[in-house]
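Limitations

Structures in this collection are predictions, not experimental determinations, and the ligand pose is part of the prediction. Treat each record accordingly. The example that follows, with zinc ion as the small molecule, is included so readers can see exactly what is and is not provided: the inputs are given verbatim, and the output is the predicted complex.
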Amino acid sequence: MDFSIKAFDTKNTLAAAKSGCVAVAVFENKKLSQAAKALDQTGEITAALKSGDITGKAGSTLLLRGVAGVSAARVLLVGMGADEVVSEKNFVTAVNATLKAFASLGAADAIIAFPTTEVKERTPEWALQTLVVAANEAEFRSDAQKSKKEPAYSGVRKITVAVPLANTQTKASLAQAIAIANGMKLTKELGNLSPNVCTPTYLANVARKLADDFGFEIEVLERKQLEALKMGSFLAVAKGSEEAPKFIVLKHMGGGKKDAPTVLVGKGITFDTGGISIKAGPGMDEMKYDMCGAGSVLGTFRAIGEMGLKLNVIGIVAACENMPSGRATKPGDIVTSMNGLTIEILNTDAEGRLILCDALTYAERFKPAAVVDIATLTGACVISLGHHNSGLFTRHDAAHDALAEELLQAGKEAGDGAWRLPIGEQYNEQLKSNFADLANIGTPGGASITAACFLENFTRNYTWAHLDIAGTAWKSGAQKGATGRPVPLLTTFLMNRV
Ligand code: BES
Ligand code: MN
Ligand code: ZN
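Predicted complex:
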């Protein structure tokens, strides 16, 4: 999809614009938006509303051809609800309906002239990003591994967004929105790939390619090096598999030489069988998505690389498979993590925290300004928050409250929400082991929280937050597929740190 922005005055230039289609908003009770009024030169749009052919309800559409006084071949009327101060939900619904209509239009190009400055509690940048992300979603195909490809998207391919003022700032906002959409696309493709293809080695190769394309520094640590670093916890998970573990470190040094970096740490379990504590059969295929934390780190790097973000960012991906085998870790095994804490592995299916704890210890060497880990960590997070918000966990002190606020705010701005849950000493006590410093599962209750508390033990030397994306990284059922979340949240968070 090709995007550009252009300023139109709502009087005559929009009516005079040559295009395959102009999409404008109309409202319930037969009200026209400013842009619709500009196209209503001879009252045809008013007449269409009067006729009842379009209700104006959010998402309703009506295509008119050859509207008198309008140079564009078609006018698409799009309902945005009752209120001219548009709700976020109605705007999103209208955008999706527009792109659905565009997908089956005989036009190659179109102008979208929506009231992007009139969305309740949302900025024009948000509206622009919503448009770009939705357009890329409409174009997205998950047929990389099908021998017969799905019919390619054949609708409108060139969209001009009408804005009141097209200056360098609005152009930068558009470029940022496109970069985020491209990052999400990579994250989705990696998530959807089958686990026999998307192995730790594959992720390392994707990271190398990204480093090449965008000028990141990269280092991929192999098993021997991980042994030398004493990553006993990560290696305990990796050793059940024939696939070689990979520990990927990407550096985007876009900031000042001496500026402390922001570090992202992604869980990259390319398949989670549960190990010896094996999972139930039905739906187990979805555990190919257990690398979506890693995928979101790579997608976010894709986005900040394209933007040339002026910030120092380090991405760490701990990648391996969690498999049962003669060499696999057994329940009751005790391992020593990189920071010296011993861990009793009571359940080999709680493997995410076992690989992340060593990655979080490794992150100390960068003297980070902040560390955010991203993981499909617990099924319990899907129970508590469903599929709308990612779970956010940090310590409860002033510095961490500020980091939590930054992440929550970024999620709001990006339409990629998170919700904070508590951690603390009482929950931490649920992780006591009779035989090691720490058990890898908690006593029953609050499983997402005790998982976060486990990680907290390894993050005491810097400011840290944890995002549990088990409910937001992919969709199940007929619409099964990765969502590209939380790339918008993470990228916006980093952009706001510049
Ligand atoms: N990758 C899973 C978490 C998960 C499960 C995410 C289902 C999304 C859907 C993780 O490794 C896991 O298995 N967690 C266990 C932890 C338990 C053993 C304490 C879980 O959530 O059941
Ligand atoms: Mn697991
Ligand atoms: Zn897992």
